[in-house]
Amino acid sequence: MPTTLLDGIGLLVTGSPEHGDGSPLGEIPDAALVVDAGGLVAWVGPSARAPAADTRVDAAGRCVIPGFVDSHAHLVFAGDRSAEFAARMAGRPYEAGGIRTTVAATRAAPDDVLTANLAGLVAEMWRQGTTTVEVKSGYGLTVHDEARALALAGQVTAETTFLGAHVVPSEFASRPDDYVDLVVGEMLDACAPHARWVDVFCERGAFGADAARTVLTAGLERGLGARVHANQLGPGPGVQLACELDAASADHCTHLSDDDVAALAGSDTVATLLPGVEFSTRSPYPDARRLLDAGVTVALATDCNPGSCFTSSMPFCIALAVREMRMTPAEALWAATVGGASALRRADVGRLVPAARADLAVLDAPSYVHLAYRAGVPLIAAVWRRGRPEPLA
Ligand code: NIG
Ligand code: FE
What we know:
Structural class: alpha/beta
Bound molecules: N-(iminomethyl)-L-glutamic acid, fe (iii) ion
Order of helices and strands: EEEEEEHHHEEHEHEHEHEHEHHEHHEHEE
Radius of gyration: 20 Å
Strand content: 15-25%
CATH architecture of the largest domain: Alpha-Beta Barrel
Shape: globular
Number of helices: 13
Number of domains: 2
Distance between the termini: 23 Å
CATH class of the largest domain: Alpha Beta
CATH topology of the largest domain: TIM Barrel
Largest sheet: 8 strands, mixed
Helix content: 25-40%
Number of strands: 17
CATH superfamily of the largest domain: Metal-dependent hydrolases
């Protein structure tokens, strides 16, 4: 592959204070970026000092940002729950039990239906600037269906997460302990080879602290990294457990005590906020300002799933974070790129710095601020993966 000079960048976001204006977001006006023969960033800096390359592409004054890292998504499913959404908008509360509706539809779906839905959602994300996505199982809840979901997810991403402990399936309703035994036994055996992460929905109506600890510990012992659906519907033990077990991320974090915030601040566990969920369930948003002011690393992700939030759009989540969670546009973009990479413990994505992957989005705008300022407008002009521009259609 020839080396490429992407020049004429009106504003480049590197995601690194060492490359740019010293701010966490790392902004460089009138910038250029060079991609090496392997699709990695070789150089970033002011256009006037750019080294030569084999080919040159002109960004025509547009803003270039790292591709979004969506670190939380449930994309392997079948069926439709728009009626549930409509009922919520008419006043019904969101309940974890709705997951079982999707479980029934997913189990009944042949592989090609699941694959087509998954590929369609990944393509939808791509068109909106997402270049790395995590994909969870969790709508199979049998040994066969969980392993199947992860094998399919592995065809679109390396960031695969075993979420057998999403909810107790109906057939185990009277014996939830037996289901946990299955998850940490035969199901984990079948799923661990296809997964990088283990996750658990630690919540009233799903799994309590003891069961969650059992599942996460079993996954850790198999070499998986931990992540936790924590404190979504109410206060609970999920965040503390995530921090104690050095989970890469505690996700949702909608209902936090002062102790939860302190635990996150004193840990390497990222707080991944999913404002699309609060939008789609008409719930109060998490207090991002409180977390940021306490020094917690914050990520933003979509949580794309058919129940609590069926958006695939990171720009939409950025707009919500800015409007509803009092994050600045710079903080929100950082959380959607560097933050997401931190939540996946990845240093090679989410930033445009030497040796990182040249995964980027070109915005039809002079500044990333437009992601929130022009909410709802499709601003992604181009997406590059590994240094190659790829068609958006
Ligand atoms: O992250 N909280 C648990 N799981 C999903 C919702 C899944 C569903 O409702 O189908 C979430 O919000
Ligand atoms: Fe989720």
